Amino acid sequence: MNCRSCRWLFVSALLVTASGAWAQQSAPPASDQTLPTAQVSGTPKAAQCSAPPALDQKSVAAFEQQAASGDAAAQCGLGLLYDNGIGVPQDYAKAVYWYRKAAEQGFALAQYNLGRLYHNAQGKGAPRDYPQAEAWYRKAAEQGLAAAQGTLGDLYATPPKFADCQTQPKGVLQDRYTQAMAWYRKAAEQGDELAQFMLADSYLNGRGVPQDYAQAALWYRKAAEQGNAWAQAVLAGLYDDGDGVPQDHTQAAFWYRKAAEQGQVGAQFLLGYLYHKGQGVPQDDTQAAAWYRKAAEQGHAGAQEHLGDLYYKSQGVPQDYAEAYFWYDLAAAGKPTGQAAKIRDEIASHLTPADLSRQQERARKWFEAHQAKPQ
Question: How many domains does the chain have?
Answer without folding.
Answer: 1
